[in-house]
């Protein structure tokens, strides 16, 4: 192999994997350590890669807040492939798409992703995080807490030993989690989009159907802001049990439609929307003729009969941006300001909404 | 020059400038167009750069939402250096640091930045933007409107012909600007930090001094949230004229300190804080003995006597992230979700605050 080919191979390895040990490169390139070191020094002098203890990393001088190319640094990546941990509350609803986005972005950046699932159990959450950080040896953490972080999370979050990005959770103003980086869907904006779609179709009285969840308050906030700003009437207190809509709850919805002039519903989440549509049909309520329905989350909305118009949070992008932010933080270090990133959902019109 | 050196030179040019015309490279590398094309094809086949019409660009497959390396794309960058426009309301207060951050990041990414200043004049703002987009030929825009965008900005913003990132302005929920990308300091968090610092020093009754500005509502929001959450008393209605604190306004502050039990002030902005400190000293009020002061903005706070504890918004990082987001948008296109990024301010303790 000629020197030029070696250089290209080295650069490709670094580009693909983010960081590589010299011992791995020796094997991969098939030269002596002496030759490899000379190649690496040469490429580093050209600014094409960066020497770190025991290995090389990609040059990332194009990131905001990153040091100039000539500033000596010791990236947190060290000399091995970066390993990051990810803890989500569910591996079946909503989070599969977030995980997929995170995995793909980690692969692009040459990092390894280790997954933990808390199943909305707070003790399990603490345990999983401890295991990821201690046992799994992760260098950074993507964390979706089982509920919105509050004062009770203070000591735990402050004691985390690795840089952490909060995912799909919003820290209260000034609360202990507000000093973490965070990436989340802008659910208030998403709910606003859903109501605006209904308002554009001529609906004037709209109700929101929701179950208790860490996300519900933000969906409700957007729903109520939209009612106010768009001069509509309606209310947000039709509830759904954790087990799905009960007989009484379906009755409440039927009454809202038949007796209280409600012509459209925003239903969060959309698994409940699918069930609700079935119950309403059994009760003789036709969709979208009698009531238009916008589902929130877009997990299964397209599979309903009729397919449900839905607000789709950018789940995959949330995962990707969270990985990107965490790896920036690990690469650049603490000197750039913490950031909270909100990604905007989109509306996907289908057959469950029509002009009033 | 050997082929290896040529390749390195080409990669360095692309790395430094983001995108380069082939005609420029021919001159720079000093070879024939035939040789250059062969080199470029070779490097492109290795995935080390990307061929576009008339030139080459850096490979950016590591961005969230970016296409996979093997997907054919036509980056918005075309075959010339990217030119982006930036419109700010002031080139003397606050924005110099934002501009500096933007300029440095643009240089890192090989883009050219063209600046316009509206001087808080809305007609001037519209004119400058039209000139940047039409006459200046900018491909993207960083926009700080003279006031918070509202419904009246709808048609204008929708009619902008280039991707636009809103800088240091927050779009109202569902408003016309909410569909733009946005980067801003998290001023509510900043104000919270200032009040928490005072609370930690034992102050129980804190007043906020402010002038009308697009930023003031967010600072007030954080101030009031902090009073509530930290169980303090105080108020946010001590005003300052556009020309600086008037005689009566200084009198109001003196009365708050001498007659109403106020022991600490949050003053927004910090040019006013500096003036207020001088007036208070003339009135015989000693700082920090009689009243502690936290300035908001940290433009001139360190120059005051005594140097003022201040909340520092991450101005330079806001400029850098805005450029980064705009160039991602120009490179990746519209398929990734819009994002709103909030960057957290920090507290810089100096001599104007002390334990009560």
UniProtKB/TrEMBL annotation, chains A, B:
InterPro entries: DeoR_HTH, LacI/GalR-like_sensor, Peripla_BP_I, Tscrpt_reg_HTH_DeoR_CS, WH-like_DNA-bd_sf, WH_DNA-bd_sf. Gene3D superfamilies: 3.40.50.2300, Winged helix-like DNA-binding domain superfamily/Winged helix DNA-binding domain. CDD domains: PBP1_LacI_sugar_binding-like. It comes from the Bacteria. GO terms for molecular function: DNA-binding transcription factor activity; transcription cis-regulatory region binding. PROSITE patterns: HTH_DEOR_1 (PS00894), HTH_DEOR_2 (PS51000). Pfam families: HTH_DeoR, Peripla_BP_3. Residues 3-58 form the HTH deoR-type domain. Keywords: DNA-binding, Transcription, Transcription regulation. The keyword Transcription regulation applies. This is DNA-binding LacI/PurR family transcriptional regulator. It comes from Nonomuraea endophytica.
């Amino acid at each position: 192999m000629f020197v030029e080919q070696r250089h290209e191979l080295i650069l490709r390895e670094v580009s693909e994997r983010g960081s590589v040990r010299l011992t791995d490169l020796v094997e991969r390139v098939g030269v002596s350590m002496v030759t490899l070191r000379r190649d690496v020094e040469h490429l580093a002098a050209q600014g094409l890669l960066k020497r770190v203890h025991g290995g090389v990393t990609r040059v990332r001088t194009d990131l905001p807040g990153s040091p100039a190319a000539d500033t000596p640094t010791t990236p947190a990546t060290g000399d091995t492939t970066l390993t990051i941990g990810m803890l989500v509350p569910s591996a079946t609803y909503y989070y599969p798409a977030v995980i997929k986005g995170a995995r793909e972005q980690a692969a692009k950046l040459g990092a390894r992703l280790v997954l933990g699932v808390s199943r909305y159990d707070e003790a399990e959450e603490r345990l999983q995080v401890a295991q990821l950080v201690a046992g799994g040896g992760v260098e950074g953490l993507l964390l979706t807490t089982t509920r919105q972080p509050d004062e009770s999370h203070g000591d735990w979050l402050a004691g985390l030993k690795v840089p952490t990005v909060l995912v799909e959770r919003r820290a209260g103003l000034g609360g202990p989690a507000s000093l973490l980086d965070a990436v989340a869907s802008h659910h208030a904006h998403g709910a606003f989009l859903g109501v605006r779609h209904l308002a554009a179709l001529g609906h004037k009285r709209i109700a929101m159907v929701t179950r208790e969840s860490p996300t519900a308050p933000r969906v409700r906030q957007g729903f109520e802001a939209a009612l106010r700003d768009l001069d509509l009437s309606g209310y947000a207190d039709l509830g759904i049990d954790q087990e799905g809509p009960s007989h009484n709850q379906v009755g409440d919805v039927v009454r809202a439609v038949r007796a209280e002039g409600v012509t459209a519903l925003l239903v969060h989440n959309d698994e409940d929307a699918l069930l609700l549509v079935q119950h309403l049909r059994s009760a003789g309520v036709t969709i979208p003729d009698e009531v238009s329905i916008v589902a929130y989350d877009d997990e299964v909305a397209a599979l309903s009969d009729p397919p449900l118009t839905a607000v789709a949070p950018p789940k995959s992008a949330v995962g990707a941006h969270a990985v990107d932010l965490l790896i920036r933080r690990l690469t650049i270090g603490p000197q750039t300001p913490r950031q909270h990133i909100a990604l905007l959902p989109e509306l996907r019109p289908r057959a469950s909404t029509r002009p009033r």
